[in-house]
């Protein structure tokens, strides 16, 4: 399985994301691009096709969560966008995750990777207990949701790099961990709290790191991307 650096292209317009990607036109390795809700809701499915035509791999981060039939039908629409990876909330149950896989699978049996969000890293253990009435410790909940995703047949989870070792321990080395919360050792944390460097994420066994502002807001985005690749992949 290929390890890679996924660049979170959190822009709100087609023009902004394309002018950012233009900076990479001379690169031998085209960055793997994450398209999230902000860009998808503003620029629509056409921006996915356009970035794909430019030769980038795409992680479509829309975090679906609904009744199984709705998720299945929505995934059947997304599969025709020819992305490489997409995701949903494990919270939607094993039945929903299985339905999503069915919807995402093309008639020839191929499909994008399907990854589950366990608990959002913005959810604290206290809020989970007080607002969601989940009494278990957060790491146990994350691990349980990861095992549900594995049972449903998904390929992996989004988690912190710090959780990669336990997810691989419980679900197997082949179960993919896609990990945001990555910062350079001399970088700005922004609103991320539990962060690791690309080099540390590599040591912890992350399969893909998702890096946004350390690249998108850098003075030299191409240089920052190359530095991430060098630290994470070598
Ligand atoms: O700019 P930064 O590197 O913090 O961007 C991280 C990206 O990963 C953002 O697109 C954010 O929405 C996403 N993400 C995250 N934590 C999660 C899930 C997704 O930071 N638990």
What does this structure look like?
The chain is α/β, with parallel strands linked by helices and 234 residues long. The chain has one domain: Aldolase class I (TIM Barrel). The protein has helices at 14-22, 37-43, 45-53, 68-79, 94-104, 125-130, 138-152, 164-171, 198-204, 213-216, 221-232; strands at residues 4-8, 32-36, 58-64, 85-89, 113-117, 156-158, 176-179, 208-211. The protein has an eight-stranded parallel barrel, surrounded by six helices. The protein starts with a strand and ends with a helix. The model has no long low-confidence stretch (mean pLDDT 95). Residues 8, 10, 36, 120-121, 158, 180-181, 190, 192, 210-214 line the site of cytidine-5'-monophosphate.
Secondary structure: elements and pairs:
Blueprint: E1 4-8, H1 14-22, E2 32-36, H2 37-43, H3 45-53, E3 58-64, H4 68-79, E4 85-89, H5 94-104, E5 113-117, H6 125-130, H7 138-152, E6 156-158, H8 164-171, E7 176-179, H9 198-204, E8 208-211, H10 213-216, H11 221-232
Parallel strand pairs: 1-2, 1-8, 2-3, 3-4, 4-5, 5-6, 6-7, 7-8
Features:
16% strand, single chain, 234 residues, 11 helices
Write a brief caption for the model.
With 234 residues, the chain is an alpha/beta fold. The protein is 43% helix and 16% strand. It has one domain (4-232): TIM Barrel (Alpha-Beta Barrel), CATH 3.20.20.
Overall CATH class: Alpha Beta
How can the largest sheet be summarized? 8 strands, parallel, barrel
The strand line-up of the biggest sheet is: 1-2-3-4-5-6-7-8
Which residues sit in consecutive blocks of at least 5 with pLDDT less than 50?
none
Give the ordered list of helices and strands.
EHEHHEHEHEHHEHEHEHH
Number of domains: 1
